[in-house]
Amino acid sequence: RPGSAAGPGERAVPAAVRAVRAFVAAYGREPTLLVRSPARVNLIGEHTDYNDGLCLPVAIDRELCIALRRTDDVPTAGDATLRLVSEQDPAPAVVGLPPPAADTPPPARATGWARYVQGVAVQLAATGELAAIGELAGAGLVPWQGALASDIPLGAGLSSSAALELAVAVACTHLAGSVPAPTELARLAQRAENTWVGAATGLLDQLACVGGIAGHALRIDCRTLTITPVPLPAGLAVVVIDTGSRRELVTSAYADRRAECERAARALAVPALRDLEALPADAASRLDPVALRRARFVIAENARVDAVAEALARGDAEAAGRLLLAGHRGIRDDFEVSGPELDAAVAAAQAAPGCFGARMTGGGFAGCAVALVDRTRLDAFTAAFEPAYSARTGREAVLHVCSAVAGTSVTALR
Ligand code: GAF
């Protein structure tokens, strides 16, 4: 996983500035490009993406930045196709790719955050993947060196991994003179995560990260890959609550949930749970109790996405907030991927002044919750929330009041 914020004194320095400084310190010259990739928070529509369903994320103003420069003009750059240093890790990610050829064995897999970097590069270089990114065909990977800085907390359910994958994908395709469609980039990053990192995730994170639109949530149809912008009411603050909790073994529980949903869809004779608007009357006799609960959640959650999108579009924050709380109850009781800190954060948020509604967000078990809060009452919300959460958990939460921002982008530095 990519590095997060540097030490306390550095926190006020934007990630973009830290990335440029780190580049100069590492390579002794100036970078020429800056790639910025946002985190995402999902407002509603959790664990629906791999059921071909709907979700409603927001790309937020916590970002991962890579300052970079191509190295095919530097004879001393070595054999590495790609070298990336991180402010959080003394060991760089180094990818030395052989030319893509059917009979070339794939490189050994890196560990840690370098694996995401390598996974994207391998996907881009693989025979067939280049053809999928049409304009890149034949261009191959342009070698580059870069430095990474990030303000996205790690393992918190805010998609630090997708932000890294998309940043590397955009860096590589930009240098190759290609501008793939956002959905193509997202699918490429997802393939890197599925096949190279080994996490069987859906497309929510990658589409949210690459498709972000300032001031808007994104209604994503994960079957058609259509993204519909939903304006966020001006008076509404999206507050991400990092509960400070982190969990291991999330990957295996995630795979279990996915398998349970697929089992439910098979038993109900539909291609995916997306294809059901309600549980059939005989569902209890066709499904085991676990599959029944999973299906009930996914079907209700898809409906909540459209209901929240419609509520936000008409400026009805109270209705949106009620739906978020209903979503939390469903994911806690039927989908069973909440956790004690997430439940405590939601309860403390719901009881605080100005809160329209809250729920856990992301894959689950630990990490972050999200609350919709009246912007004029943010101080009162924070003052009430913080001690209430600490009293319940003995932990301190970190609150991020977030803006909706644009997706992964690249700019020339000079
Ligand atoms: C994780 C996964 F990566 C996403 O694909 C999605 O399934 C999410 O959990 C749950 O909504 O972030």
TrEMBL record:
EC number annotated for this UniProt entry: 2.7.1.6
One GO cellular component, as annotated: cytosol
Domain of life, source organism: Bacteria
Chain ranges of the GHMP kinase N-terminal domain: 148-211
UniProt keyword list: ATP-binding, Carbohydrate metabolism, Galactose metabolism, Kinase, Magnesium, Metal-binding, Nucleotide-binding, Transferase
Entry's Gene Ontology BP terms: galactose metabolic process
Pfam families, per the entry: GalKase_gal_bdg, GHMP_kinases_C, GHMP_kinases_N
GO function term, MF aspect, one: ATP binding
UniProt name for this protein: Galactokinase
Record family assignment: Belongs to the GHMP kinase family. GalK subfamily.
Domain (GHMP kinase C-terminal): residue spans on this chain: 309-385
SUPFAM superfamilies: GHMP Kinase, C-terminal domain, Ribosomal protein S5 domain 2-like
Domain Galactokinase N-terminal: 22-70
PROSITE patterns, A to Z: GHMP_KINASES_ATP (PS00627)
The protein's enzyme class: transferase
